[in-house]
Amino acid sequence: MKKWKVAIMGCGMIAQEIYIPQMRRIEKAELVAVCDINADRAKEVAEKFHVPQWYGGIDELLGKCEFDILMDTASIQAHHEINMKALRAGKHLYSQKPIALTVEEVTEQIEAAKAANVKFSASPIHMIRPDIQKVREIIQSGAIGKVTMVRVHASHGGPEYFQFRDADPSWFFKPGAGALYDMGVHGITMATAVMGPAKEVGCMAAISEPERTVRSGAFDGKKIKSDMLPDNYLITLDWGDGCIGIIDTGFCQKASTVNMLEVYGTHGTVTILGELTIGQGEGVRLYVDDPAIKVRGWMDPLPVTEPDREFEQCECLADLIEAIEQDTQTGLTPEHARHVIDILCTIPKAIEEKRILPLHTEF
Ligand SMILES: NC(=O)c1ccc[n+]([C@@H]2O[C@H](COP(=O)([O-])OP(=O)(O)OC[C@H]3O[C@@H](n4cnc5c(N)ncnc54)[C@H](O)[C@@H]3O)[C@@H](O)[C@H]2O)c1
Predict the structure, then answer these.
(1) pTM given for the model
(2) Cys bridge to 361: 82, 300, 342, 352, which one at CB 3.0-4.6 A?
(3) 11 within some domain
(4) What is the 363 CA–ligand 1 centroid distance (Å)?
(5) Which domain holds residue 23?
């Protein structure tokens, strides 16, 4: 069995908590190098996880290391440059979200992947999650009738509060990042994963917590000014044909009891239980109103994975490797990511102009 050589770019929270530990369970992958602009962190992480090589930047990594797949888990603002360099060097790529900050940048990355004949997979992972797949199946089967509304809950209490952090989280609150790019991307990806490309977007937003305090790790107690970008959003989408959607997203919910996704149709409702999760959810619940068979009620929860199998974020890598080996499209297409970035980029204009605006991309 061929083992594909993987390098990780960006040794922060997501790399250390998710990808490096989970990669051991991806049998066709072998982590050969870690890399970070902060070379000391790359070295520390290499030692901590017994990774053979470490590097201090993308140029050094590409120049000195032999590998097949790059996982870009660096800060949001760094993704476009890293991704372009990796694709041009002929590396298959999985990039953390958002993969770029504009539609044009994503198109540039898609073209670079085509030119180099490499596979390109774009976070977030929602499209290949078993629970999202189950919801798509239920909608496509017609079990809930014509879809009339999608509701998504994609908020938490902020990166300085919600997750353990040893790297300074100040960058999350600066232009190029922010709640919309960090969390809105999840909500919009989930909504479009179940309903396909939207036609129009509107949005209401506020700066609700202009100062924050880091609550864990090496920067515990540090005050962060968070008044440059909104941290609290209500996004509305229109798919046409009587189907609309609403997504709450941001950094202003310390806790919540709202389920992450609910789809309403003319004959029922389907819900993914629990708060936003990227891996294994709490199950899918279906309400069916079918007078023909005299059924009206909830069925819960529907099994979405085999009993002995847990879905993890790093399965994006298994999906990418399968696409490379079978020469097929990845399950997480950059075209879907481009549509999400189209929505992300249109939202600030919709807020400023206080109106609903058209979208120009599909997937
Ligand atoms: N999918 C998810 O659930 C999820 C969750 C959290 C974060 N993320 C995403 O993962 C990425 C990283 O987030 P994080 O929470 O790990 O952040 P982090 O701040 O903990 O780590 C980011 C790391 O990238 C490094 N870095 C910055 N610029 C770089 C460059 N030019 N070259 C190499 N390294 C560079 C930093 O030094 C830091 O070590 C972001 O895109 C974020 O949106 C995804």
Answers:
(1) 0.94
(2) 342
(3) yes
(4) 26
(5) 4-118
